[in-house]
Amino acid sequence: MISLYLSGRSWVHRLPAAIKLTFLLSLSIGILAIESKAGLLFVLSCVLGAYLSLGPGGTRRIVGLSVLMPPILTLGVFQGFVMGWEIAIVSTVKILIMIVAADLVTATTPTQAMLSCVERALSPLCRLIRRNPRRISLAVALTMRFIPVLSDQWRTQRNAWQARSKHAPGVRLLIPFFLQAFNRTDQIAESLRARARH
Fold first, then answer.
1. Residue 126 is part of which domain span?
2. How many domains does the chain have?
3. How far apart are CA 186 and CA 184, in angstroms?
4. Tell me, what's the pLDDT at 42?
5. Which pTM was predicted?
6. Concatenated DSSP letters of 150-173
7. Least crowded by CB within 10 Å, which of 2, 131, 153, 163?
8. 5 lies in a domain?
């Protein structure tokens, strides 16, 4: 499932996994306090700039992530009608920041390095609550890895629709998109259970 590491020797690749995951955690907490659209767009521009600094591979990856825009914007429009457009715009930009930042860490960090880092960080807490840190680190890594997986899934469904119809799919792909995503998570969960039994 996960051949999503983007090999390279950029400055982002050379950063230790601990620093990148700490940055991601700090960013996810920090943007909660930012309500200014200009401030959020500046943060998004910085994250995109870091991604583009990876070179052509990073540019292609960003273009690939753009296929997630229709479902994100659809959710933003729904939120706009329910909670107001100001809140919807801020919320949508925050989601975009987290998606790009999480995928940047995913693309530049080998899976094993990510698992080891999260496992070490969670070990004290896991001893306290008597949980296996390896399981929690695997859950964190899978969550981050799913962003480009869902991007590829949306692209595949959109291309299949365009091959059959001349009309834009609009929101009609959202239900099959989410159903397939849930089905994929069930398959992964079953695979993990099967491996745990052996």
1. 11-197
2. 1
3. 5
4. 92
5. 0.62
6. HHHHHHHHHHHHHHH-SS--GGGG
7. 163
8. no
